[in-house]
Amino acid sequence: MIYDLHSHSNVSDGGLTPEALVLRAREKGVTHLALTDHDTVDGLLSAQNAAQECGVHLINGIEFSTQWLGCGVHIVGLNIDPSNDCLKATVDLQMQTRVDRAFEIGQRLAKVGIVDAYEGAKKIASGVVGRPHFAQHLVSQGYVNSVNAAFKKYLGDGKAGDVPQRWVELPDIISAIVAAGGVAVLAHPGKYRFTRTKLKRLVTFFKESGGEAMEVISGKQTLNETNSFADIVEQYNMYASCGSDFHVPNQPWQELGAFSALPERCRPVWTTF
Ligand code: MN
Ligand code: MN
Ligand code: MN
User: Fold this and answer.
1) What is the DSSP letter of 7?
2) Which candidate in 160, 189, 194, 265 could, as Cys together with 112 as Cys, close a disulfide (CB 3.0–4.6 Å)?
3) Cα 14 to averaged position of ligand 2 atoms, centre (Å)
């Protein structure tokens, strides 16, 4: 059995439809797949239907963005009930933070002489407006020559349109996952580039807030990393999760099912499902 408990479809920033994702997981030998799109559960129904047809076990999931001490942190919810009211309200709040931020970027750009940027970006975006849409708008209006230049001059760190996201706070994210019958998993701890001391502070806060698991394995990683995260999970008496964080094909470091097994000493998170 291969459990891959972290993956994305084109319902968020992945490249495959939920159906195509499930089929690819099966091709890659994954028996248990969690679809964990960013701040949305909209792909789960299609994924469930496809999974039932091809014999993959689909676990309902989500990956929430939040922040801790000013750093972006991701929390995966596994085995959630997507119809739970508290979960749905939290998903709506996350969406609202994206909309609010886009609106504020527009206001800030207006202050440096770029009028109607929000309206322009909105015309380009098919869903919620993000910085790439502002960048495309700035290019199309001749303010800059390229998307890169748009970030350098207007949208990147410290520039006029650099507005931080204010996600739902970490304890509220975990409460929503737990209310929906799920288990909260601290995603890809290696990605934050924290010192070990800082990571342990985050883990302490995460546990105090009701989090129970951490990804010991996130895609291809070194044995050293695996062992160091397994140590933390053991020390803090948490469950261990593993997943590819698959987004698009042809990125072998995060291919579906393509990672090493959890160390024997870990208690797999799926024993709680
Ligand atoms: Mn992503
Ligand atoms: Mn993530
Ligand atoms: Mn992810």
Assistant:
1) B
2) 160
3) 12
Q: Give the pLDDT band of residue 34 (cuts 50, 70, 90).
A: very high
Stated pTM of the model: 0.93
Measured in angstroms, how far is the CA atom of residue 142 from the centroid of ligand 3? 34
C-alpha of residue 112 to centroid of ligand 1, in Å = 31
One-letter amino acid of 56 = V
CA dist 177 and 39 (Å) reads 12
Which ligand is closest to the CA of 243, given by its number? 3
Question: Which of 102, 77, 73 has the alpha carbon at shortest distance from 169?
Answer: 73
pLDDT, averaged across the chain: 96
| CA 20 / ligand 3 centre spacing (Å) | 17
Q: What spacing in Å lies between the alpha carbon of 13 and ligand 1's midpoint? A: 5
| CA count, 13 A, side-chain hemisphere, 47 | 30
Q: Which of 200, 261, 258, 257 is nearest to 233 (CA)?
A: 200
Distance between Cα 44 and ligand 3 center (Å): 15
Distance CA 8, CA 247 (A): 5
Give alpha helix (H) positions in the chain: 18-27, 44-54, 85-111, 117-124, 131-140, 147-150, 170-179, 196-208, 223-235
Distance between Cα 116 and ligand 2 center (Å)? 32
